[in-house]
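Subject: Sanity check before I submit

Could someone independently write out the structure tokens for this chain? I want to compare against mine line by line before I put it in a report. The sequence has 1698 residues.
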Amino acid sequence: MRGKLLKTGISMVLAAAMMVTSIPASLVSAKEMQTKGIAPISDAEMPEPDVIECAKFVASGGQSGTDTWLIATNENGTNGTERSAAYIKDETATEAAGGLGSTRVGAMAFQLPSGEQIDPELISNATLTINVTTCNKDNMGSRKTRAGVFRVDQSFYDVMRSDGVSNSTATDLFPAVNNDYSKDATIFSKEWLSLESAGTTTFDVTEWVKEAIAKKDTYAIFRLQTVICGFEVSKNGEKAPTLSITSISEQQIVEQAKAELTLPESVKNKLDLPSTGLYGTTITWRSGNLDLIDNDGTVVQAPKNDTEVIMTATITKGAYQTTKEFPVIVKAREALKVRAEYTFSEEDLTDKMISDTSGNGFDAELKGTGASIKDGMLTLPGGGAGSSAAYVSIPKEVFVGQDTLTINVWLKNQTGSNNYSAMYFGTKTRHVDSASTADMPLNYWILNPAQPDGYFKSVWTDSDNAGAPYNTETAVSKTKTSSDWAMYTTVITPNSIKGYYNGVEVCNNSKTKTTTSFGADLVAYIGRSSYNDMFYKGGVYGVSVYTDELTQEDIQEQYKNDMPPEFVTSVMAKIKENLSVGLGDLSEVTQNLELPTQGEGGAEITWSSSNTAVIANDGTVVRPETANTEVTLTATIKLGGKTDMAVFQATVISNSKQSQLDLQVKHLTIAGAILEQNIELPVRLDPYTTVAWSSSNTDVIKIEKSGDKVTASVTRPDKEVKDATVTLKAVVTYEDGAVKLDASKDFAVTVRAEDYGSLMAYTNSKEASSLGNSLHLAYSQDFKTYTALNSNTGICFANNAGGSKNSNPNGLCDMYLFRKADGTYGMAARNSSTKKYIYFYDSTDLVHFTNERMLTVDNDVNGDLEISPYTYDGTEVTYAVYFKSGNKHYRALTKDFETVMEQQETEYVSVQDDTTGVTAPEGAVISDLLGVGKAEYQYVVQKLDVVKNTGIEKVAVKGKTGDDVTKLLPNKVKADYSDGTSADFSVDWNQQDLANVDLNKKGTYSVTGTVKQTQYPNPFIEQRADPCILKGDDGYYYFTASYPMKGGSDNDGYDKVVLRRAKTIEGLADAEEVTIWDCDWNPDVEKEYRYIWAPEIRIVDGNYYVFYTSSIDSSVWSIRPHVLKCTNPADIMNPDSWRTMGMMQSVESDGVAFSGFSLDMTVFENKGHWYVIWAQTDGYSSLFLAEIDPEEPWKCISESVKISVPEYSWERQVENVDEGPSVIKNNGKIYVSFSASGTGPEYCIGLLSIDENANMLDKNAWVKQPYPVLTSADVPGEYGPGHNSFTVDEEGNPIFVYHARGQKCYDNQCAWANESSLYDPCRDARLKRVHWAADGTPILKMSYEEELAPENRTITATITVDQDQKPIEPEIPVSSVTLDQTSMVLLPGASGTLTATVAPENATNQILSWASSNTKVAVVQDGKVTAKAVGNAVVVVMAANGKAAVCYVTVVEKEIIPATGVTLNQTSASLDLGKSMTLTATVAPANATDQAITWESSDDGVASVKDGKVTGYSVGTAIITASTENGKTATCKVTVKISATKLKLNQTKVTLGVNEKFTLKATVTPKNATNKVSWSVDKKSVASISSKGVITAKKAGKAVITAKIDKQTVKCTVTVKKAPKSIRLNAEKKTLKKGKKFQIQVTLPTNTASNEITYKSSGKKIATVSDNGKVTAKKKGKATITVKTFNNKKAKLKITVK
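---
Independent answer below. Compare away.
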């Protein structure tokens, strides 16, 4: 085997080969190799050396000949003055004069192999050989000649080659060393050359040669220095000096590397596995147990016990390879010190105690309401500060004094981004402990999964600052979190705090304060802190507290091994979705597939193929030769102990020519689906495939050919006509001389008509940036002057959901409008803050932009956005997205505006319109101009421009003699509007004009009319915010609103519900205002406090209610919705008619509804169901909806759903608020207006909608209009319009009732200018009429002038009479008809006569007609009434002009018998609350003619009655009275109570000793049942039972105890035995190790019993004992456990703890 020292490209002369017969000293000896088990290398296998002959030689003081190199001479004396020095010139020896004294120098150069071709470390030996052929001995005397070899620098060679080297130069080059050869630093060998040593001498130059090659020197240069005389070297060219270099063989290298390779005997976390070895060998590793150690040496998981794993190294050099095995012990990991652990179970929910599963006894307490537990996951409802929302209180001992902690918890955060806490420990405040006076905690650790900016926050207070402790917190991370399940870990040491998100470190801060320095008086929570913040809302799973500092590996292991089941399920679904997206279209596989083996969360993915010959399990594809082949790929996914599968169907395309053609046809594309200009069409796809084109409409698209190019030449239709649809047909032909194949493909394209107008997209610099940075639109028909739409405000805003109030970091700018292939539209925009993404929105009408998404690109986006079609394959378009980043431009390709297919730098050529000379709206920063067709233009302008009255209906009628002129003209006329809609208005016709119309005379008559438009005063009612007007069932209008505080010191505001009533809406302005309820009246249901806001009066299921908000504890932040009910609708304005129903009640399973700050309730009905909508703060004010019981509308019957959150900047000005909902319906749609932002000028109204047939409780069915429908900009002189209600006017027209501040208040000129908005009463009630837009949505901003133009408020009608008529004698009409009887009673067959009288007596037409309403009962003819059968009938007599009179006829079998009395089936009754019963009334005598009964309750609030059905409403007594028509009565006393529905005992079997007592505890459901539990026993001699459930055992035997309440009965069997006289234990002594347990077992004498067994430890710090006798060893020492029976019989157990 030959060492690979030299490679191609090295030029040198090789001398005779020289065999090396021994192993170099640097290698392992053969003996050592055998000792180590390595096979030694034989001599025959040793590498041969490479021998290099001297390439150049130069001498000083000597000569150079053709064949002989003379180092020195002394022919003419010792000074050598008669000879010359020789040197190299152009590779040839020459000489020059000079004498150099007695010391002579020569230099030899050997050309070396380069370091790029050989590793210097592979050189085992380098030897310099010099052959001395002749010695000069003349004139030597007693002196001896000596010589040595010295190192020469590489740079000397350049001088050796140069011209003109003088003797002095040569001396400088090769200086003598003063005859001193003892300098080790320069001498390579001390083998001196002498007279006696003529011949061959070798020098070991290994280290220097290795160094020279490492330095990449070209030559090895040696200096030969002599003294006194010289030598001849290589006389006559023989035996030239040589340099012999020997390298190591690959086998030697590998074997030595193997011998020296070692590993540690054991490992805990990670083995350091070298990848390279001795002499550059490569080493790869294989683990014998991948479950424990990965191939990279990482310990995957520590085993329970020490476990051996074989690690195999494969060592390679060149072609040689060997292996070596190492047994490594994977150490069992030390158990983490768990301080407390909470794995939630349903049992925890029952007893409100969260068990500490660590065994350390730190059980936590579940407090508050609304929590739920399922599958180990605790769900907390969240709520406002001070609410009753659920949270967990952890014993402070878990944390006190623990300076090193790791706290790990999984959270599914539904709270959003705000200030709150998911976990906390620290000092107390008055908000959690009434004994504390602190308003904020001084010292704490707090975990907030998403602080106001959405970042992970785990912080520590590191100094004391009672006024602002939050200023001492350590830094927050810069990692944003999601609302999905995630693991949050905090590692706390005495000097640091680290945070980990899903196992990855996200923050690391130093600190000085420790837990110990916090003190011992701490509190600890899950779901809250001791700040007065909102409560955490969301899921909690797997809370662990360790007193260890866990490593990142530990934490990542926790992440992998302890995932919430719900998270695993969702991640599995996401993995499958990502696999589907990642694999892409598998319908035409032509190349290898990349099959991922890992997924989110560290999931393992393995693959199997149904046909491995076509697609291998690793994704390798082998295409079939003939037919396409279907293959099923199955992915098996393993995560968190669960396994799931995903199946994918792939079609592998064959290599056949037909398949290739089909594929080409499928992917044939053109440059767009919507055309405005010519496009070039592809004509050749490859050398054998061509395309021919045709058009279905050559008037619009003509196919033109010029040379090799084919163009679709486009002629756009006229702007007044529609866009044209044209089909381009491509015929694709493959022809290679042997085969010809054809296929075709159609492309349906739209050619746009010429532009009718233009839309400008812009931002508005005059607005606040968060509002101005949105899509604004303006329109123009001359393409130069543009008019703002939507009052110069935005219509599309970026989503900013979450975050802190008034935080709107996302804005839109550089918008670009474009058309999509499907005929809809898109908008692109960049974020107003530079980001690496582009916003995209969809629109069907250029008004509503939805489906916001972000296309992530590789660079910051600075502007120059443009979107254009890139390719169109007949079904979908690939779009090119152009943008600017810095000074460069890029193009990204996408199909869905969510995923970039490719991105590259590109040249920028703008296609945007030139805006030079364009007049834009005030403040406009122009982004884009889009040409639009006529229909597009008209729709956008009609929708977004100010809608105005454009005309009024023309009235022209014809009349003739006999017509009623007052009926010829319509009562209403139709007004037309600019958006194509219309509205009806009543008309008052001029009576004098009507009187002047002569219908008997030919001519045209004009009648003027006044179009009725009620213009309400503005303001309508001052200082009444949140106004509500209701038109009642009684025809009256009712008004209520918030009764304001006038300044912060006002004690008489927000404390009452006021009501006004009037016959007309206008009358409400001056109507008397009555207080119907005041918070100081102390209702008997519950105490309520002030901050009564937004009362709303409504009729629900026939009853009047007021829904309002009031505080439950005097704090403004503790307001909740409440309800008043009117118990006497006949006297609504009487305060005594109103009764409080208390706070709104959610269903038991709903922990969210009304759990925090909630207000602004409204109700509505749809499809027979009633619903309530309200605003509630859950980080910000959102809108919630639930279904209610119409009979008790203060009770929800469904869980709540959130239907709106403040997500757009117009909802987030000053405050993040959606509130004040109100409902109006139109044309199958339900609209909910709501108010947004703070209550100043920024207040505005938004709009939600839902189809009336949709599920109201489906939050996804609700659609929010992305821009407000009313802002201050829409109503000049009014500021902050909002919190509205809807009513109808006297003619049924919808009326919009709202509040807004006036100009004086806006200008800060009112008396309350310096007050906060809460105490400023300047919001005034105002009214407008609602106009319905063309799309059915309500227009709320129409002014009176826009509603009815002044020129249209008076109209003139024409009445045309075609010819003269003869005058007709005036007719005297009948003014009345009367009968002599108004009622008549007859027996069957009998008759009676009615006489009719007509007034006036001289009435022209006195003909009367008679009729019966029921001819089966009675008939009438000319006034004679004949009875036919028993029953009732109405006889009507009527004149020709409709005047009539009636007589009520009753036909009876016999004469009427009056009632003499009435009785009820019950005179007293008991009724469950909320239940009903039926009373039956019996009239006496039984044959009384009138059996009708009237029912009445003495107290409808306790029990109401209808048709004998009695319903209980509250606990108490009411008298139900039944009355006949003639006044006979009967009564029943009804007691309404709450009955028990369930009864449960703590024991159903119990064994006692004689005289032992035991208390049975009865649990009654519901807890507030009216009656008490009664007790009884069947054998009083055996046991007795007290009224409180205490059993006393009397004598041996058995007895049955019965507990009873209402209809519920439960029994308990009591077995009585003798009292024990002794007690025996299963041990008297026991030795335990610390932490171990022992169960005590008690034995009593036969036939004795003691139910009560007590256990007591004498030393609880040494050993504790539980109530059931389980002993736990705590620390070293001794303790005695005493066990007693009920009669004081004792036994003892001595415990020793080691």
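---
OP: Matches mine. For the report I'm noting this point. The longest strand covers residues 123-135.
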